[in-house]
TrEMBL record:
Protein name: Glycoside hydrolase family 31 protein
One annotated GO molecular function: hydrolase activity, acting on glycosyl bonds
Domain Glycosyl hydrolase family 31 C-terminal: 587-673
Gene3D superfamilies registered for this protein in UniProt: Glycosidases, glycosyl hydrolase (family 31), Golgi alpha-mannosidase II
SUPFAM superfamilies linked: (Trans)glycosidases, Galactose mutarotase-like, Glycosyl hydrolase domain
Superkingdom of the organism of origin: Bacteria
DUF5110 domain boundaries: 689-757
Length: 799
């Protein structure tokens, strides 16, 4: 009999001295005398993985985040033993590991200290659940700044903040509220003009503290699992982001129509209401490519069903909408109604596909249909089954995309808003509780949805959007920032969130334009549209509880502003498509905060508002009411005001006057910006010209235009056109050089070239060294010329 005993609280535990090490291929194992093992793996010269275990052996190595199709390799690896430390050297960095306690430090090859452990790895045994609470702390350098972490409603620079990662349904969240819908445990550190990244690949609830608790210490920890993180060396932030995006993966190219404008509401029904909305867009000549159906299209909120009272013939309706240029997107949630007469429920029950509690009963929770069970998307068989459910929606009815919502997973009327932590998951052969699976549940649902939509949309490309996501979800889906609010503060939040997600590998995102909850004024809606058209995903969405939020719900002025800016987005579609191509090919984020664009300029380190759209357009939204202008920072270099063509010298903060129908937009000097004519939907028009806006610069600038058939997979067989454009400006000369890659033949035959900012009067024009008469190319002095697209060099000479 045991009496008068209590469990000893051990507190934090630490690795002891190294007693042995082994070098096996790309990995080095360090063993301590208290059974801690550190495995250091060199994936690239600038990408190193650090994995710790406290039990003397490693569990199965499995991650949903890592893109297993990526090939890694290093150029140089050397391990040496010194008196007090081991040193691992690559062609980019040196890592020193202390023999006494496994603490490590990382240097560049010039012995500049990039990152250094404070306490380093330590842990606390978890008596309640088993395993460990794993912790890591590192010194912060003077002036060090921190960025990334995905979906955070706070300042761009995270210095002084503590954040939490636990996917949560946060209806009408506020500034600085934690946690939110997405989990991206990746941050970028910047000090002394050197950038590095840390990706903490742990799916348990995690926390990051950026010098809040202690001013010179940054730490991160998890409630379970392993201390398993990747160090990414820059030294440029561009290198860090690209390497991380390669590690966790990139999406496939969406069809061009997905980059158009989308309209959504909770909810558009019945069919007559949907047709009323789509007809009004065409009547007002506001371009729109997609209309969304929220939960009310279903029969009693049962997924994969239709309410035949509201939508008596879905296939006919979807076909008629398509004839008018609208693609139909439908919502699908994870909660499957408990109903013995419901075919989806019966199939899942027969196959034993629902999540279970620890003692065996199915996980049951209330969502829109009432009491529901929930598929375990961490089971490959469940994902395959789920993918097959989309046949009727996609192949038979003709729906073009699927919207996954409530997949944090969200559960109503329970204190923690989600599953109990004892729910069990297959986790692809690594059985676990919901503590480990929670943060990846939404991603695995989106993954299954993506494979289903892709299977039945073929030979067209799929479109999927999800609310909840973990690092790597970008391989399968786009996303948005969740249930925001129609306030000026939320307009500020949306601007930062989408920038932050873009440099966190999850580039294809946007916000609910105008705010989901509550009702915007016409001014707020107009300002949000002006920002939203410069986000990769562009959709108005709102809760019907608070009134109407279509562009015509306000006044004529707001209608005109909406038309103007949505039309501008459609003109810029080839520029946006090129941005996306560079994202999937090279891991370059589509939106770039100013600190990403120029990290050496310390004035960019705390800027929130301004961002670079693509590579050459600077955008600064208006974020307060009654504004007649604003102060903004123009990054270093030369920039043209898009509206006036006035040239500005950057590297300073300036006041910019604006009108209600404008926001500050600038184009980098030397840029060549491609434009299409305004269409009411992608594919509406056949046109014989591509407009190229050429901005003069005394110097050189590279631009590009990517084009293909706008849908389908021929581009993967080389049937694309990638046009590299080199702009060379001199005092009295302008030279434009073209080089085309790919086998796709663009349907237009001419370029309409707008010459902007020329400092001289044109005296002579040569195309491929042949002098051209002005009247043959419709040249208007210092304005534009129309020339055949088959040329290699355009030479413009001034008087």
């Amino acid at each position: 009999m045991i009496t008068n005993t209590s469990l000893e609280y051990k507190g934090d535990l630490y690795p002891s001295k190294i007693v042995s090490y082994e070098h096996e291929g790309d990995s080095i194992f360090f063993n301590t005398d208290n059974k801690v093992i550190l495995k250091v793996t060199i994936l690239r010269d600038s990408l190193i993985r650090f994995r710790f275990t406290t039990k003397g052996y490693f569990s199965n190595d499995f991650s949903y985040a890592i893109d297993k199709t990526q090939l890694h390799g290093y150029n140089f690896l050397e391990v040496t033993e010194e008196e007090t430390y081991f040193q691992i050297r690559t062609s980019k960095v040196k890592c020193k590991i202390q023999k006494a306690d496994l603490r490590l430090s990382i240097y560049d090859l010039n012995d500049f200290l990039i990152l250094e452990d404070e306490l380093g790895f330590h842990w606390e045994e978890s008596y309640e659940y088993g395993g460990n609470i794993v912790k890591m702390s590192k010194y912060a350098k003077d002036g060090e700044c921190y960025y990334g972490l995905g979906d955070k409603a706070t300042q761009m620079n995270l210095k002084g903040k503590r954040v939490e990662n636990f996917a949560t349904d946060q209806y009408a969240y506020q500034k600085d509220q934690e946690p939110l819908y997405k989990v991206v445990p990746f941050y970028i550190g910047l000090h002394n003009k050197q950038s590095y990244g840390i990706f903490f690949d742990n799916t348990f609830r995690t926390f990051f503290d950026f010098c809040q608790e202690r001013r010179n210490v940054t730490s991160f920890w998890a409630e379970g699992g392993e201390m398993n993180y990747y160090f990414v060396y820059g030294p440029q932030m561009q290198d860090v982001v690209t390497t991380y995006t390669d590690l966790t993966g990139k999406p496939e190219l969406p069809p061009l129509w997905v980059l158009g404008y989308h309209q959504c509401k909770w909810s558009y029904y019945p069919e007559s209401k949907v047709k009323e909305i789509t007809s009004k867009f065409r009547e007002l000549q506001i371009p729109c490519d997609a209309i969304y159906l929220d939960i009310d299209y279903m029969d009693g909120f049962r997924c994969f069903t239709w309410n035949k009272n509201y939508f008596p013939d879905p296939k006919r309706m979807v076909s008629e909408l398509a004839e008018d240029g609208f693609k139909t997107i439908v919502i699908i949630d994870p909660g499957i109604k408990i109903d013995k007469d419901y075919w989806v429920y019966k199939e899942a029950l027969e196959k034993d596909y629902f999540c279970k509690r620890a003692d065996g009963p199915y996980m049951k929770g209330k969502v829109w249909p009432g009491e529901c069970n929930f598929p375990d998307y961490t089971n490959p068989a469940v994902r395959e089954w789920w993918a097959g459910l989309f046949k009727e929606l996609i192949a038979d009815i003709g729906v073009k995309g699927v919207w996954n919502d409530m997949n944090e997973p969200a559960v109503m009327e329970v204190p923690n808003k989600t599953f109990p932590m004892d729910v069990r998951h297959i986790y692809d052969g690594n059985p676990c509780s919901h503590r480990k699976a929670h943060n990846i549940y939404g991603t695995q649902m989106a993954r299954a949805t993506y494979h289903g939509v892709k299977r039945f949309a073929y030979p067209k490309r799929p479109f999927v959007i999800t609310r909840s996501a973990y690092a790597g979800a970008q391989r399968y889906t786009s996303s948005w920032t969740g249930d925001n609010v129609a306030t000026w503060e939320h307009l500020w939040i949306a601007n930062i969130q989408v920038q932050r997600l873009s440099i966190s590998g999850m580039g294809f995102t946007g916000s609910d334009i105008g705010g989901f909850a509550e009702q915007p004024t016409g001014e707020l809606y107009a300002r949000w549209i002006q920002l939203g058209v410069f986000h990769p995903f562009c959709r108005t969405h709102s809760s019907g509880d608070h009134g109407n939020q279509e562009p015509w719900a306000f006044d004529e002025e707001v209608i005109n502003i909406t038309r103007k800016f949505v039309s501008l987005r459609y003109q810029l579609l080839p520029y946006l498509y090129t941005m996306f191509w560079q994202y999937i090919e090279e891991g370059i984020p589509m939106l770039k905060p100013l600190v990403y664009y120029d990290q050496d300029d310390t004035q960019t380190h705390y800027r929130n508002d301004e961002f670079i759209f693509g590579n050459q357009i600077l955008v600064c939204p208006i974020l307060e009411p009654n504004a007649v202008g604003r102060r903004m920072y123009i990054p270093r270099g030369e920039w043209y005001n898009y509206w006036t063509n006035e040239l500005f010298i950057g590297g300073k903060e300036i006041w910019i006057d604006t009108k209600f129908d404008e926001i500050p937009v600038f184009v980098k000097a030397g840029a060549i910006i491609p434009k299409y004519p305004v269409q009411q939907y992608v594919g509406e028009l056949e046109f014989d010209e591509l407009t190229l806006d050429v901005y003069y610069k005394n110097g050189k600038e590279q631009s590009a235009v990517y084009e293909d058939a706008q849908d389908g997979y021929d581009y993967k067989k080389g049937r694309y056109s990638y046009l590299s454009l080199r702009n060379i400006g001199k005092e009295k000369e302008l030279i434009i050089q073209l080089h085309k890659e790919g086998k796709y033949i663009t349907p237009y035959s001419k370029y309409k070239i707008n010459l902007i900012g020329l400092p001289f009067k044109v005296a002579e024009i040569e195309i491929d060294n042949e002098k051209i008469e002005f009247d043959k190319i419709n040249f208007e002095q210092n304005n534009f010329l129309l020339i055949d697209k088959e040329f290699n060099e355009l030479h413009i000479v001034g008087e």
